[in-house]
Amino acid sequence: MTSIFSATKQLHPDPQEPAPPGPSTEAAPPGPATMIYTFKKCVGLISITVSGLLLLAVFNAWGTWSSSGVDIQPRLESPIKKLLEEKLQDSISDYQHIAYHIKEDVACRLALNTCVCLADKETFRLPFSNLIFPRVWAHRVDRAFLDSHPDPEGVKHHRAQEYSSFQRRSLNPADLLIVTEANSPLQYPSQGVRTRPLKTILIPGLALKEEQRSNHMVYLSATLGTFDVAATVNQVSVTGEGEKHIELSSPLISALNRQLQFVTYTNTIFHPKTADTVEFATKGHQGFFTIKVEHGTIPKLYNSGSQKEYNISALVTIATKTFLRYDKLRDLIESIQQYYPTITIVIADDNEHPQPVTGPHIEHYIMPFKKGWFAGRNLAVSQVTTKYVLWVDDDFIFTANTKLEKMVDILEKTTLDLVGGAVREVTGYTATYRHTLSVEEGGEEGDCLHIRNGYHHTIEDSPTVW
């Protein structure tokens, strides 16, 4: 307490007290006030020292984090050579014995067909450091989900089946790679070359087939991307690397063809769906092929259960729109739940005075009065989370002959997107709607849509399906 009061007096001296000794006056022995003054200077020195250490830590953190980013370089044990070998093993080539030298800066941009996510290492922690110096973090969402699931292996197996089914349904023969072997001296892919926007690929199938001469030369030109080589071959001259026009020449035809196997294309203009026309030419001959630039189709995988037979409740939702026919609607719901008691039923209702429609697995949505059938359909379908939706009118009735399993089976085993069934009236009359849709090229006002009775052909192994 004495030291505190003495310090106060030192800061606020009394006018009646003698003045402190001047330069020519003998200094008084250190008292409490002098000790506090010295203590404050020490505290100031310690504060400066701590501040300096904090600044050093911040600069160290800055040096560590300022360059943080997603490292896209290969993280596995130099897989580039293996990647190139895998990409070239199916190519038409007699030049596998010719050595090459990998260009790491180009080859590392090729897709490695693997997902490796690594987070930045935390070197120093300060308050709010993640806000000031954000770090790259990584989290395996799939692993977190599987760790909490009672049957992780079953989920992985079912997901693999769903993904295989998606690939089979989304396969487009026009996307398959076809390499046109040289009728002229040029060999190049005629279809099936695709890259994602701003990504790099190896161009498959390039070759020159001509008689031996003193020098062999080819060039490639593009408009939406640039060319480079992922590896170099001895005795081959390459000019225009990283540009839209590249030339390759060599006195050895075999060396040139080996080099052509490593030509890369990098899309440089972002567009979600377009194509680049590439010119491939040599003296007196030229050819053209397209490289599709587009995002891949995102797989839509659904949890349809782990049963060997179709789990209709997990695959199908029934949707309907009702107006002024609650008695018919209740008959429909009762008939559905008689044969499919756990299937979800979505109802869009635009009655002026809505009545409650409740029960297990029923979702009832109220709309503005007389909003209309189209709005009701859109609302009902928007609430569907299953793989398939069955649309029915609110006066339909399910019977023992209503087999949703047959409809699902057709959709699962074919590339069809829509199936329908016959509707039997109360009188016994059965209406089967069979017609074909076709679009023919029209004039300046647009194309022509034709709707005609009939069908195209039956489905293989399903003679009752048209």
From TrEMBL:
| Keyword vocabulary terms for this entry | Membrane, Transmembrane, Transmembrane helix
Mind telling me which Pfam families this protein's record contains?
Glycos_transf_2
Q: Does the keyword Magnesium apply?
A: no
Where are the bilayer-spanning segments?
42-65
- The annotated region (Disordered) lies at 1-28
| Glycosyltransferase 2-like domain location | 318-438
Keyword Cytoplasm in annotation:
no
Any GO CC annotation of this UniProt entry: membrane
Q: Name one GO biological process term.
A: ganglioside biosynthetic process
InterPro entries reported for this sequence: Glyco_trans_2-like (IPR001173), Nucleotide-diphossugar_trans (IPR029044)
Give GO terms: molecular function aspect only. Answer: acetylgalactosaminyltransferase activity
Task: State the PANTHER family in the record.
Answer: BETA-1,4 N-ACETYLGALACTOSAMINYLTRANSFERASE 1 (PTHR15046:SF1), GLYCO_TRANS_2-LIKE DOMAIN-CONTAINING PROTEIN (PTHR15046)
Name of the protein described by the UniProt record: Glycosyltransferase 2-like domain-containing protein
Q: What is the species of this protein?
A: Channa striata
